[in-house]
């Protein structure tokens, strides 16, 4: 698994008090590091059927009023077989944004029709350095600095794609693409259909989204929930340098419009990726850690929270199977289905908001298709349905934390 | 090119008449110079001359095609009232001169993109009546296989990019097509048509800014029929000079009911766009029907106004007068031409009515481009492959 620069195991081995000792009056201010486990206070971020989400109360978890399982500290019998998709035979190490850049550069070298358009992607090098150096190499006609008009330049990218160009449209922050929603929904998604197949729209729309470090409500949007019902588009979310490069390349080569969701906090992940050329399947989910007891479905940044919680869970004697779903539209029900048939329990951990998020659709899809295989209702942990606050403490409570994941697994596996 | 298609049609004109008369309709390209009805008004550029080069063949062709367009729209009106066409149906009668004049000035490599009032422009780009009526009635033989409808006519091989329902959204698309033309060094231009209502959309100015900045061969054409659905121009726009709205972008105001003025302006615009970047054309035109078939068109304007325009400025009447004054055909011949057109339209409608509706499986085709690299199936997918194409 990728080494996380933020100090992965900070609270993993910290002793967790049994969670019925929540005292809503004294919240210990959690540490700023988002990947550490808070040892004292728990905010449960969501439930699978929307029962009372009382802030800090224990009533939610005790929904089925079953006795608490007092865990025995069991040493992990299985080594953490993070099914790393990297081949470590011959590779080079780089950061996630460099992996994206590499993928982009390789595709631009390969196909002269590929061009990039967005704000500050050219001379500035990209606000997250994904397009650094490309303008010098490919020139101003292929790496285009646009004025600040998302609606128009997204429309222009789509119009150019109708003629056969393959533009990559970058939203400096995914949230800004809301201004281009009409172009993405009506033109990008639907032109292939309404023209009876005459025009294809091979665009890639990409950009960072998700909750960052106190960026405020408008810059912490998770747009996958808004875009998921647009017919005709594909959505993928990258989470490691390996799949970032692979998905970028596959998205550029795809004839369908693809929206590639990156995360603001993941750009500095370091990993070793192969030297040889590879792409990742756009519709495939990634098996991060095979297991037996429970299937945990996640994507993007929450993968790391889940893996952190997995360490704790392994110490407690559980064997979670962690799948990074990667493909947000369409869902890889094949991989997910095989996992559900094996473990019979599902926990979805996402960064979307509770209402109308990816988790909500995934819950419905799993219930419809694999109902007979489930031993417990699908549980979904999502962010709170609130605008992301600025204050660090509040911001941390809007997002699912590893401790909540641990508690949820414990509850599901009773 | 539109004219080459017409030459085959002119042979069709002479056929039924050969028995009826002795006079020979001149189908040669005898050059004729025609003065436009009104001078051009220019903004930041020198207006083109009022004398338009044309030919007798072109004149007759203008008449025939415009009469065909008019007849097609009237027929669509009756089909809508007979509930064979459903949903929204926006008719172009009165505005034919814009479609025909533009077509005469450009080639099929130049792109046209327009909004929902697209039936006649589709026809001008080389679409057939059968495709039009089939699509309007939702049949398989329609240009979009029945899945688009009135507002989604496209013809890729003649660079006709539609056919768009959302007001104003086609202009950034059009500028994108112009960008691709510049990227591929094609020496072609894009005409992005929009209405006076859409002229107030922000995305137009955004797209115009980028086009001017990047020197794109984009020509923005405002088909000003003075009403944005039910709202008159003066109630929607502070400045009615749409050709001046580009500010730093040159503009030209054209009498949109005069096909030759339109032709001259489009030729001028094409030359300008290839050399100096974007330009705005404002076509002063008028629609006889309401905004769409659900709008009677008389609640916000008087019948006198409509009939006044029809008497004084009708584009087909103008061409008819030119044809007669240049002695290219007699009244009777033109009437016979119109009768033949009527029959042609009726035949196309009958043929389209016989066409089947799309198969149910068509519901799911063309949502994604399939067969590319990898596929996604339902829960029972057997195999997953990632292949480098």
TrEMBL record, chain A:
<dbReference type="InterPro" id="IPR005475">
    <property type="entry name" value="Transketolase-like_Pyr-bd"/>
</dbReference>
<comment type="function">
    <text>The pyruvate dehydrogenase complex catalyzes the overall conversion of pyruvate to acetyl-CoA and CO(2). It contains multiple copies of three enzymatic components: pyruvate dehydrogenase (E1), dihydrolipoamide acetyltransferase (E2) and lipoamide dehydrogenase (E3).</text>
</comment>
<keyword id="KW-0670">Pyruvate</keyword>
<keyword id="KW-0786">Thiamine pyrophosphate</keyword>
<dbReference type="InterPro" id="IPR029061">
    <property type="entry name" value="THDP-binding"/>
</dbReference>
<protein>
    <recommendedName>
        <fullName>pyruvate dehydrogenase (acetyl-transferring)</fullName>
        <ecNumber>1.2.4.1</ecNumber>
    </recommendedName>
</protein>
<dbReference type="Pfam" id="PF02780">
    <property type="entry name" value="Transketolase_C"/>
</dbReference>
<dbReference type="InterPro" id="IPR033248">
    <property type="entry name" value="Transketolase_C"/>
</dbReference>
<keyword id="KW-0560">Oxidoreductase</keyword>
<feature type="domain" description="Transketolase-like pyrimidine-binding">
    <location>
        <begin position="94"/>
        <end position="269"/>
    </location>
</feature>
<dbReference type="InterPro" id="IPR009014">
    <property type="entry name" value="Transketo_C/PFOR_II"/>
</dbReference>
<dbReference type="Pfam" id="PF02779">
    <property type="entry name" value="Transket_pyr"/>
</dbReference>
From TrEMBL, chain B:
<dbReference type="InterPro" id="IPR001017">
    <property type="entry name" value="DH_E1"/>
</dbReference>
<dbReference type="InterPro" id="IPR029061">
    <property type="entry name" value="THDP-binding"/>
</dbReference>
<comment type="function">
    <text>The pyruvate dehydrogenase complex catalyzes the overall conversion of pyruvate to acetyl-CoA and CO(2). It contains multiple copies of three enzymatic components: pyruvate dehydrogenase (E1), dihydrolipoamide acetyltransferase (E2) and lipoamide dehydrogenase (E3).</text>
</comment>
<protein>
    <recommendedName>
        <fullName>Pyruvate dehydrogenase E1 component subunit alpha</fullName>
        <ecNumber>1.2.4.1</ecNumber>
    </recommendedName>
</protein>
<feature type="domain" description="Dehydrogenase E1 component">
    <location>
        <begin position="65"/>
        <end position="360"/>
    </location>
</feature>
<dbReference type="InterPro" id="IPR050642">
    <property type="entry name" value="PDH_E1_Alpha_Subunit"/>
</dbReference>
<keyword id="KW-0786">Thiamine pyrophosphate</keyword>
<keyword id="KW-0670">Pyruvate</keyword>
<keyword id="KW-0560">Oxidoreductase</keyword>
<dbReference type="Pfam" id="PF00676">
    <property type="entry name" value="E1_dh"/>
</dbReference>
<comment type="subunit">
    <text>Tetramer of 2 alpha and 2 beta subunits.</text>
</comment>
<dbReference type="InterPro" id="IPR017597">
    <property type="entry name" value="Pyrv_DH_E1_asu_subgrp-y"/>
</dbReference>
């Amino acid at each position: 698994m990728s080494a996380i620069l933020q100090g992965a195991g900070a609270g993993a081995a910290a002793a967790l008090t049994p969670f019925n000792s929540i005292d809503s009056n004294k919240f210990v201010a959690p540490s700023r590091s988002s990947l550490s486990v808070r040892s004292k206070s728990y905010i449960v971020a969501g439930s699978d059927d929307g029962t009372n989400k009382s802030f800090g109360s224990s009533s939610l978890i005790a929904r089925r009023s079953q006795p608490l399982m007092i865990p025995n500290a069991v040493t992990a019998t299985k080594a953490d077989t993070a099914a790393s998709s990297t081949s470590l035979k011959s590779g080079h190490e780089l950061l996630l944004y460099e992996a994206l850049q590499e993928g982009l550069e390789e595709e631009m070298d390969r196909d002269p029709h590929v061009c990039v358009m967005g704000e500050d992607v050219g001379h500035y090098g990209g606000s997250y350095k994904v397009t650094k150096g490309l303008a010098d190499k490919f020139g101003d006609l292929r790496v285009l600095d646009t004025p600040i008009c998302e609606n128009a330049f997204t429309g222009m990218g789509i119009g150019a794609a109708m003629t056969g160009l393959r533009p990559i449209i970058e939203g400096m922050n995914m949230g800004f693409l809301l201004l281009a929603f009409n172009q993405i929904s009506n033109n990008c998604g639907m032109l292939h259909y309404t023209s009876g197949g005459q025009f294809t729209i091979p665009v890639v729309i990409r950009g960072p989204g998700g909750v960052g470090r106190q960026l405020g409500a408008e810059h912490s949007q998770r747009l996958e929930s808004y875009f998921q019902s647009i017919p005709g588009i594909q959505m993928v979310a990258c989470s490691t340098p390996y799949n970032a490069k692979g998905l970028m390349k596959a998205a550029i080569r795809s004839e369908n419009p693809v929206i590639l969701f990156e995360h603001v906090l993941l750009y500095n992940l370091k990993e070793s990726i192969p030297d040889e050329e590879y792409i990742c399947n756009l519709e495939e989910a990634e098996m991060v850690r095979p297991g037996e007891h429970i299937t945990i479905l996640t994507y993007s940044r929450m993968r790391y929270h889940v893996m952190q919680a997995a360490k704790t869970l392994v110490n407690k004697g559980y064997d979670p199977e962690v799948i990074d779903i990667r493909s947000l539209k369409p869902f890889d029900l094949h991989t997910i289905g095989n996992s559900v048939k094996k473990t019979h329990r599902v926990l979805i951990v996402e960064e979307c908001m509770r209402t109308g998020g990816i988790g909500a659709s995934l819950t419905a899809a799993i219930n419809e298709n694999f109902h007979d295989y489930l031993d417990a209702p699908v549980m979904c942990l999502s962010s709170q349905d609130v605008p992301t606050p600025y204050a660090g403490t509040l911001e941390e409570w809007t997002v699912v934390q590893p401790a909540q994941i641990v508690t949820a697994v414990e509850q599901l596996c009773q | 090119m539109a004219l080459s298609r017409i030459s085959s049609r002119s042979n069709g004109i002479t056929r039924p008449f050969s028995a009826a008369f002795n006079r020979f309709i001149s189908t040669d390209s005898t050059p004729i110079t025609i003065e436009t009805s009104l001078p051009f008004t220019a903004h930041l550029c020198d207006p083109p001359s009022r004398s338009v080069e044309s030919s007798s063949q072109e004149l007759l062709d203008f008449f025939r095609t415009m009469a065909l367009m008019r007849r097609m729209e009237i027929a669509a009106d009756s089909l809508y009232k007979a509930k064979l066409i459903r949903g929204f149906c926006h008719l172009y009668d009165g505005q034919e001169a814009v479609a025909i004049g533009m077509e005469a000035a450009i080639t099929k490599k130049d792109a046209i993109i327009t909004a929902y009032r697209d039936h006649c422009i589709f026809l001008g780009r080389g679409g057939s009546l059968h495709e039009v009526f089939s699509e309007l009635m939702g049949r398989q033989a329609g240009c979009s296989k029945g899945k688009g409808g009135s507002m989604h006519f496209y013809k890729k091989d003649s660079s006709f990019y539609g056919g768009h329902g959302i007001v104003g959204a086609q202009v950034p698309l059009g500028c994108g097509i112009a960008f691709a033309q510049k990227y591929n060094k094609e020496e072609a231009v894009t005409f992005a048509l929009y209405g006076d209502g859409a002229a107030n959309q922000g995305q137009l100015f955004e797209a115009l800014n980028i086009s001017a900045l990047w020197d794109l061969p984009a020509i923005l054409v405002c088909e000003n029929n003075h009403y944005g659905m039910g709202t008159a121009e003066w109630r929607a726009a502070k400045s009615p000079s749409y050709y001046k709205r580009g500010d730093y972008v040159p503009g030209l105001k054209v009498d949109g009911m005069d096909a030759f003025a339109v032709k001259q302006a489009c030729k001028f615009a094409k030359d300008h766009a290839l050399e100096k970047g974007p330009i705005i054309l404002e076509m002063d035109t008028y629609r006889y029907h309401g905004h769409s078939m659900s709008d009677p068109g008389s609640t916000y304007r008087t019948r006198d106004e409509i009939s006044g325009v029809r008497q004084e400025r009708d584009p087909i009447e103008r061409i008819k007068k030119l044809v007669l004054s240049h002695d290219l055909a007699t009244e009777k011949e033109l009437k016979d031409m119109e009768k033949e057109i009527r029959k042609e339209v009726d035949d196309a409608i009958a043929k389209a009515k016989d066409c089947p509706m799309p198969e149910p499986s068509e519901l799911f085709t063309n949502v994604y481009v399939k067969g590319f690299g990898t596929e996604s199936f339902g829960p029972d997918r057997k195999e997953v492959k990632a292949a480098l194409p």
